[in-house]
Amino acid sequence: MIVLILLQLFYTSFSQYNCSVGCGSSSNCIAEYTCPLCLEGYEQDGSCFYCDNDNLDSTSTTLNVMTVNGCEKRSLVYDGDNIPTDVIELKLDERYTYTFTKDKPYRKAPCGNGGYVQGFWVKFDSKAMENDTIYLDFTVTDLNGEEDSVDYTMTINIISQHHGNKLCVGQSSLGSVLYPHFQMPKQMFMNDDTIYYYFFSLTEEVDLKFSFCFTESETERVRYYISGDNLEMLAEVKRTGTVQLPLASEGYFGYPVCMPHIFGKMIDLEYEFNISAVMLMTTKRQNRILYVEEYEWDENDDKQCVQFWNYVTVNGNIGIFLLVQPSHRVRKFTFITQEHNLDIYVSLRVICPNNCHNDIGNGYCSISEEKCICKEGYGGSDCHLLCYYNNQWQPSTNKGDNQCYFGSSSCSENCLCEDGYVLVNHRCISYNCTSRIKDETIECFNGDINCDIDCKCKSGYKLFNEKCILETCGNGMRDEGEDCDGGEYCNEFCKCQSNKYIPSSNIQQSCQPKISSGTIAGIVCGCCAVLFIIILIIIIFIIYKFSHSIQLLLNDDIWKSQQPPYYMYISGSKRYSPEVSKSLKFSITPLSLDFGRSEIPTEIFETRYQEIHVKNLSKRKDMMIIFHTPNNPKYVFHFNPQVKILGPKRSTDIVVFMTLHCTTKIKNVCIPYTVWFSKSRRYLNKIVELLKEKTFNDWSQSDQLQMEKELKNIPLHCHGNFVIATEAASSTHIDMDELNISEEPIAEGAMGKVYIGEYRSVPVAIKVFRWENLTEEEMNDLKNEVINE
């Protein structure tokens, strides 16, 4: 019994988990914020954090709302995507009061993300107004009528029903801020609409009374002002100040005076800037599209445009970037945006003293760098003439008396040493350095290795264990000036441990023991001898292979023989061209074959060859190429080899031989080929066996059925052709198919008959010799005589 009680106490003390309200109680949780079943009204996702509203539709009358007590049911009014038909219309200066409580219905917000909020609709017709601006006069109290006692955030959506279509034209916010304000023009978007619909909603449930009216009487609007004293203080501390302009709750709608065709939401900012410098005013913090205009008031209290600025992109940030010059007056700016529910953050920074002396050409103020960019010989914060530049004192009359080198440590831009430093050889040296007294600013003393006169490590060196070592020491790589870096026989200063070691030739981070000069000489001589022998063997092998290949190519009659036919099966094949070589996973070059005779005709009975480069671009599949040579007695094309299988990412060179037997039209003749892909060479070999020794006439129905079976293992096959780019030379061995002879001779003699005919559309006379009574010697003499003619 005691054991059971202890176990129960142990389980109870260690099984309490944090639970959400939707789980009911902590005892229902089986892990942190996890329970098997959520209460009604919650999403059944195990965490029970969120209210379930997935099944809401046009017939729903309630929804679940997250409150301080968890998800509770509230009444719902479904407006759909249209403006309700029963909207209350308010007259000018007619006050209307709406009380927000938990009993008031929820509606779907007409603009924005379309969430469900507590809100109500009103409409207002502005055609009865005499002025051009609509103001909202309102008060917010608690249910007892007390003001300034409610913390709330209210959103106002402005909707126009232009030509029967709902159009969200503006959005504003009211809330617990100092100066909430709402105003808009009587006409928006340059149209004739006068009736506007307003949807007032709360982002969270709050009990309050909201009383308001639309009026022509101007309500108080705050203009933000920055005094010159604040900007002077900002310049002294050299910091960036940021002003938050609450456009969401205090901005007003309208048309900018400098850009009257654009509708937007605006807020004003004024300041005095009389410092002899330049102020950078930016909105880069938000990285949003904004506009800004400068204006003045005329004698009729109307705005007059002074200047307008568009948004730009600087260093990857989008926004307003202005360089403001000093002025002895209050400057007035209006910030404009088309994102209506957005506060604007304006950053102010005083930069570029004396405007970089831009008036005399010393430099200019850069927005991207936020400082002066000076021309050669000028520098400092304001682009004055440098007292020391390019190892020379400036101006020419300056001899550098009592001045330090500009750019050296503790030397100001006016070539004067900072407080606490003395001038030694035009360098600023601290008192402790000259006195060899160690302090936190002293790295080393003058005379130490790699130590400068100012008791700092020289440029490119850093302090490590009271020594100045290269800055690159410790990066694991041997850099210039280092023997090693972190490897074997290497000390912490990136030097070899002693003179018995030298930097390693194999491992950059390490050192290695020294080798005697005799050993080095023997190794060098042996390597040279081995290298000479290898080069000699390679040269002999290349000469042998080249001479043997040329002799084989030009003298072997096999290259002049006709190759066996392969049936060209192109059903389902893709046409190849160089433009689609990557998508078809292979490449062939060249496709135009001139056999080295692009300008000169090829002689009859001369065998010429050309190499073709074939590459398999596939990463996983084998590729097979078949060259379908023509069976023609006029010429022979012989491919070596005629069929080739390549593995993935492999390439090879194919040699094609051409032998002409007569003068015939060979240029632009096409030699076809087919390409096949498969994951196994076994399937490719089956394709070869099926196609070999087959022509169009030999291809049978059984062959077709067998091919369809084999194609299941062929994911891709393509076809293309080479084009012959040479011509046949003229000879007596003509293509008889190009010669047309009349049936009756026009003359006849003892040696033969003469016919009239055409050769390549040219009229010719053809003489047919009598051979039957001639000896072999006489026949050869007659042939030579005809050839010589």
From TrEMBL:
Keywords: Disulfide bond, EGF-like domain, Kinase, Membrane, Signal, Transferase, Transmembrane, Transmembrane helix. Residues 348-384 form the EGF-like domain. Gene3D superfamilies: Phosphorylase Kinase, domain 1. Disulfide bonds join C374-C383. It comes from the Eukaryota. Residues 1-15 form the signal peptide. The chain crosses the membrane at residues 520-544. GO terms for molecular function: kinase activity. InterPro entries: EGF, TKL_Ser/Thr_kinase. This is Serine-threonine protein kinase, putative. It comes from Entamoeba histolytica HM-3:IMSS.
